[in-house]
Amino acid sequence: MKEKIYTIPVTDAFRVDCECPMCVLEKKLEDEYIDYILGPSLMEPEGRIETNDKGFCRRHFEKLYNKQQNRLGLGLILETHLTEQNFKIGKIYDSKKDAIKKDSEMSMVKNLSSKVSMKKTETDKLVDELLDALDDLEMKCAVCGKLDHTMERYVDVILYLWFKESDFQGLFNSKKGFCLKHLKELLKGAKKFLNSKETAIFVSNLMTLELENLERIKEEVSWFTKKFDYRNNDAPWGNSKDAVPRSIQKIAGFCDFI
Questions:
Q1: Where are the domains of the chain?
Q2: What is the pTM of this model?
């Protein structure tokens, strides 16, 4: 297989014995981005602008904190992120503060009339604006955004290698399938990067591999549960001792289990 700089992370991940090589790839990227945000990004104006605007999802806030590295840097990120979000939310509320005071003093007759007509009050409009702003923030994460962008590029590389490099195709087909999250990303990538014939060939191969391994992991979990029956005390565990965490990862992607 001809290795290039942009293919090495992909081929390295596919050489790991695991339930989903794309989880291995994503986990490595995620760790690199966490280190970057707590390090060089702190001194880069563009990085701070991004974290001020987007913040992080719950998973990545947890990872940033649990890293216990550069707590001062994390505190500074939080301070400026909160400053920006407090300003945005406060500005929305201040724009309708006087109007909702009037709504709170509305007479009973007018209140009933507005309910019958289904006309939005200023308070309704304020709540909708606040919900839109909070939904928008909830959908953003400075780490997830980087991961999604880079993983899409890697999906393109995977599909390229699968069709151009017979060695990689053999490596791909020797794997235990993918988690359902990354199965979805591969299917989306096939639609985006392949022509109709290539999509049909790749999806047929992918789904044969995936369904075979979904059945395998189901049987391993099934045997794990049967081992709790006293009649199976002396029977070998086979591959089922760690079937529960592996099956969770098969469904949801990489998890930080304690």
A1: 8-143, 166-252
A2: 0.86
